[in-house]
Design goal:
Length: 222
């Protein structure tokens, strides 16, 4: 058991007196996965419950016309809602997941997951609390994608980064918003023509934060 990593990322496990958690931590396998690797895909069986230690995983589905639609990111200190759902229901993955950067995680074998889920009140509460939160995040994200103008959604996404310079490509923003790259490029160029942004290779610089914020309060965009 790597006590240092448990203490840093999931200290509540070490703080609990539950003996089953000790067995779970002993059974957990530390895995490291390089960036850009597919870790699951539609139809793949789920063999482990994963607890993220570092890095980021993006989970996405493909629309009928081949567009990638981002569902959510899984980052340090989190678990994957699809993985949890598949383990609970005994189902295969319905979507695909890719590492966005090098990832390290604790992989807990499914039989250990199920035993602790049945016998440990602490672990059961931990799993369902995280599952509920992550599911709510996914629903909110789908609502944000489905409703509101592209202008509003794009402005909100840009402002959410909280910095003047955003290191994202047009394609990455399109994936975030569930639309085509050409659509995002067109709206970004319009924002630039209004003097709100400066578009550079590989990054976007926000010039007028106030105008972007005002877009959020308009009906139907610009």
């Amino acid at each position: 058991m790597n006590e240092t990593l448990w203490k840093r990322h999931f200290p509540e496990f070490l703080a609990s007196n539950d003996k089953l958690l000790g067995q779970l931590m002993e059974a957990a396998i530390l895995v490291k996965i390089p960036a850009g690797q597919q870790i699951f895909y539609p139809g793949k069986s789920c063999d482990n419950y994963l607890l993220m230690l570092s890095g980021s995983v993006k989970t996405q589905i493909l629309s009928s016309d081949g567009r990638e639609i981002l569902l959510y990111h899984v980052q340090a200190g989190e678990s994957c809602v699809l993985t949890t759902s598949c383990l609970l229901g005994g189902n295969d993955y319905p979507a695909e997941g890719y590492t966005e950067s090098e990832v390290s995680a604790f992989a807990i074998p499914s039989h250990v997951f199920h035993r602790c889920l049945q016998q440990s009140d602490f672990f059961r509460e931990f799993v369902f609390r995280n599952f509920s939160k992550r599911l709510a995040d996914v629903i909110n994200r789908m609502g944000a994608i489905s409703f509101g103008s592209i202008d509003q959604k794009l402005a909100k996404t840009l402002l959410a980064f909280g910095s003047k310079t955003i290191h994202k490509t047009h394609n990455e923003l399109a994936l975030e918003l569930g639309t085509a790259r050409e659509v995002i490029s067109r709206h970004l160029k319009r924002f630039e023509s209004l003097g709100w942004l400066s578009l550079n290779r590989g990054n976007i610089e926000i010039i007028d934060f106030d105008s972007l914020k005002k877009t959020l309060n308009t009906n139907g965009g610009l």
